[in-house]
């Protein structure tokens, strides 16, 4: 658990910040889009299976792209020793971009589920009810003896449990990280504000947006403390 309250421990060089955005787009978002292309209307089933396999290794692709971009950007004129002010500005742009991306994804998902619920006639009969929130977000109880009706159903269940466990861990980690930094200023009123704000962020931006908001708030708190103490972020 990070306990330092020094700004220098939370700022990242601008090339690394830019690399994060680029690596997520190329290493995760792009493979996700390619994997989601419908088959066989746009791609054949063999290619779709290959793309799904390729997507499984997205942490590797993100790390590789991040390393390449972070290495190349300073050599194209980006100063790796940028001022703290510049790094803070870039950090805020990155966090805002992550929140926007998470919000778009969450809004798209909720809009699809609402359309399925209130306008079922827009969907083919076999897809009516498929996008019910309980079926999308909540995996069915399973055991080693549970038999799946198809490979697709098994893959969906695996992804649902992966999403549920990963999102829960990420939200708990980011919440504890923020509370650990903010603990000296915790009051009953602030707890209520954090809970209500957390619920709103979760509804609007999903788990990723919530975690991003917690970490961003943590960073801003530390930066504000340094400015109050007269240590300008320069």
How does this model look, in words?
The chain crosses the membrane at residues 12-34, 54-73, 93-114, 158-179, 191-210. Keywords: Membrane, Transmembrane, Transmembrane helix. Helices cover 69% and strands 0% of the residues. Helix 1 (14-36) packs antiparallel against helix 3 (58-72) and helix 1 (14-36) packs parallel to helix 4 (84-118). The protein has a domain at 128-234. The longest helix is centred in the C-terminal third of the chain and has 41 residues, at 188-228. The radius of gyration is 21 Å and the shape is globular. The mean pLDDT is 81. By secondary structure, it is mainly alpha-helical.
What is the strand and helix layout of this fold?
Layout: H1 14-36, H2 45-55, H3 58-72, H4 84-118, H5 133-137, H6 151-182, H7 188-228
Helix pairs in contact: 1-2, 1-3, 1-4, 4-7, 6-7
């Amino acid at each position: 658990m990070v306990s330092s309250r020094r700004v220098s421990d939370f700022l990242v060089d601008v090339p690394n910040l830019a690399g994060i955005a680029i690596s997520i787009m190329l290493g995760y978002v792009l493979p996700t889009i390619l994997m989601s292309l419908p088959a066989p209307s746009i791609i054949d089933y063999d290619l779709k299976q290959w793309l799904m396999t390729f997507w499984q290794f997205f942490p590797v692709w993100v790390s590789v792209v991040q390393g390449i971009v972070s290495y190349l950007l300073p050599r194209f004129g980006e100063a790796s020793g940028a001022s703290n002010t510049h790094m803070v500005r870039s950090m805020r742009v990155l966090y805002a971009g992550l929140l926007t991306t998470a919000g778009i994804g969450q809004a798209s998902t909720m809009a699809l589920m609402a359309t399925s619920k209130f306008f079922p006639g827009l969907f083919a009969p076999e897809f009516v009810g498929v996008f019910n929130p309980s079926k999308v977000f909540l995996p069915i109880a399973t055991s080693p003896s549970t038999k799946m009706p198809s490979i697709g159903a098994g893959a969906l269940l695996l992804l649902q449990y992966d999403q549920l466990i990963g999102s829960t861990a990420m939200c708990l980690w980011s919440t504890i990280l923020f509370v650990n930094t903010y603990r000296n200023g915790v009051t009953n009123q602030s707890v209520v504000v954090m809970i209500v704000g957390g619920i709103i962020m979760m509804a609007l931006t999903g788990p990723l947006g919530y975690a991003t908001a917690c970490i961003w708030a943590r960073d801003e708190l530390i930066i504000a403390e340094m400015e109050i103490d007269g240590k300008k972020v320069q």
